[in-house]
Amino acid sequence: MTKPTLLILSATALLLTQAAHAASKPCDELKAEIAAKLDEKGVKNYEISAVENDKVGDAKVIGSCDGGTKKLTYLRK
Predict the structure, then answer these.
(1) Sheet holding 60-65, edge to edge
(2) Distance of CA 53 to CAs 24, 35, 56, 64, 74, Å?
(3) In the chain, what are the domain boundaries?
(4) Strand bridging mode 60-65 / 70-76
(5) pLDDT (0 to 100) of residue 3
(6) What is the distance between the alpha carbons of residues 61 and 72, in angstroms, rounded to a whole number?
(7) pTM for the full predicted model
(8) Burial class of residue 23, CB neighbours in 10 A (0-12, 13-18, 19+)
(9) Which of 5, 10, 30, 58 lies at a CB distance of 3.0 to 4.6 Å from 25, suitable for a disulfide?
């Protein structure tokens, strides 16, 4: 395998591992982490909600939690 191919495969594996790890986080923990980042950036008047996967509707999904059983949605007030 060439070095660029190996690098791409390694990066892809790392990203997939991180995504799987984030999906296994409890919703409250992930919600707090995202809220802290938004607050750091000065974002105001927003709501983050944990909803069942089939109840997302038209909301903007910003994360997955509780083993992938729920989605975190973002709404500007």
Answers:
(1) 46-52, 70-76, 60-65
(2) 14, 20, 6, 9, 14
(3) 23-76
(4) antiparallel
(5) 56
(6) 6
(7) 0.67
(8) middle
(9) 30
Give the type of residue at 54: D
Q: HEC states along 8-65?
A: HHHHHHHHHHHHHHHHCCCHHHHHHHHHHHHHHCCCCCEEEEEEEHHHCCCCEEEEEE
Q: What's at 2, amino acid-wise?
A: T
Structure tokens, 71: 């989605």
In this structure, what token pair is assigned to residue 50?
A: 């944990």
Phi, psi (rounded to 5 degrees) for 60: -80, 120
d(CA 18, CA 51): 21
Condensed to tens digits (0 to 9), the pLDDT of residues 17-69 reads 555 555 578 999 999 999 999 999 999 999 999 999 999 999 999 999 999 99
**DSSP H or E run through 3:** helix 3-23
What does the pLDDT read at residue 24? 79
